[in-house]
Design a protein that fits this description.
- The structure holds two protein chains of two kinds.
- Chain A is α+β, with helices and mostly antiparallel strands.
- Chain A has two domains: 15-44; 66-204, Oxidoreductase, molybdopterin-binding domain (Sulfite Oxidase, Chain A, domain 2, Alpha-Beta Complex).
- Helices cover 18% and strands 26% of the residues of chain A.
- Chain A is built from four helices and ten strands.
- Chain A has helices spanning 20-40, 80-85, 113-120, 144-147, and strands at 66-70, 76-78, 89-96, 102-112, 128-133, 139-143, 153-158, 161-162, 172-174, 187-193.
- In chain A, strand 5 and strand 6 form a beta hairpin.
- Chain B is 69% helix and 4% strand.
- Chain B is built from ten helices and four strands.
- In chain B, the strands form two sheets. Chain B has a two-stranded antiparallel ribbon.
- The radius of gyration of chain B is 21 Å and the shape is elongated.
- In chain B, 25% of the residues are buried.
- Classes of the chains: A alpha+beta, B mainly alpha.
- Chains A and B meet through helix 1 of A and helix 2, strand 3, helix 5, helix 6 and helix 7 of B.
Amino acid sequence: MSASTGAPSGPSWLDTRISRRRLVAFSGLIGIGAFLGYRLLGGFGGFRINTVEPKNPAFDPASYRLVVDGMVDSPISLTYDQLLALPSVRQVSDFHCVEGWGVKDVRWEGVRLQTILDAVHPKPEAAFITFHSLDGFYADSLSLGQASLPDALVAYRMYEQPLPPEHGYPLRFIMPKMYGYKGAKYLYRMEFVSTQVVGYWEQRGWQMNAWLA
Amino acid sequence: MPGSPERPRDANHDDETMLRFEAGIRLIHWVHAVPFLFLLVTGLTLFIQPIKAAHIDGYRIVPLLHVLAGLGFIASPLALFLWLRTDRASADDIHRLFSLRREDVPWARYAVGAVLGARVRIPPTAKFNLGQKANAVITVAVTAALMLSGAVLAVNFFTKRVFSAGLVEGVFPLHDLFMLIALPVVLVHIYLGSLHPGTRESLRGIISGRVSRGWARDHHDLWVEEIESRNP
């Protein structure tokens, strides 16, 4: 075939010689961008962690106790193993954040709050429970009536695994019918009181009664 | 004339300049660009947990600034609409940005080839090439989507009484998705407009309004001819 000396007529798409390296580079960039975007969003519909502790509180199974005390007749103090030995349930519930995002069908495993209520025998003057997180940064509270809802759960497993640190390992509270800030992570103490404690986010403007809209 | 050097192709720094963007369209550009970038930066930092959590007097600062700026931004199309009723030159630019021409087809072939490293020449091009038009259309569409979804989230930021949790939770990831579409478009726009050696002359145009005539002839020759035939 005779070599065309190439009259500079406008190039047509088909006879344009492109650089293969650039093609690979651009495809790679688009792929990386899409992957990072997907990860950034937690795969669409993922959790966006709002932990307030500067770092995830440390958990030592030897010294950890779940303490349930205050205005109760039978206070209890459970090691992590004793907690795991309590009658447990699996629960699938949606998680709703007050920021506006939610996660459907989260699989939790743990102890019904009602089971613990039954064990400690609240005194008549006890009207509220304060949930305390390890390290003392976070606390929230519920009335006893709210706490007796059947899906109020003290959860130690999530998606068939121990709670990840950012979700409150070793233990967190789950209240599906309220926004997520009601569910204290790194839970180590439930205190029965007569006057409701104003929780961490409630001090910052959110509602005490965090029922879903 | 013997000895007179030919004007170099792709002259970005020609002394002679011509008016490309009138004050109105420049104002429209920056009135949208500045809050858009502010919203993009504040929005992206919401993915960095300690920044999102920083608060004064119970109000989380970055989310609050993002929401307030967004509400202001949502009001801007109305101002734009009122402005365009009085500003013919800007309306003309916008009309050109949103209409396709025959020349857009060879320009699209050129652009794909050029991006992929082919040695191709810029085909005859009017005031706006297809890339600039695509940027305008995508930006307007994605911005409208961001404004609509953002409006729902902004209301939800202040009160839960208007929209149901289910609706808000459906809109929330969409707002992120629209941002993810806007992000590469904006980054490419900024790169081409201010960094890329062949096209950064356009930054001068959107700031001062004027671009070098040589650059304009290389990139928008049909438009230069149009202007020159109007003012010979």
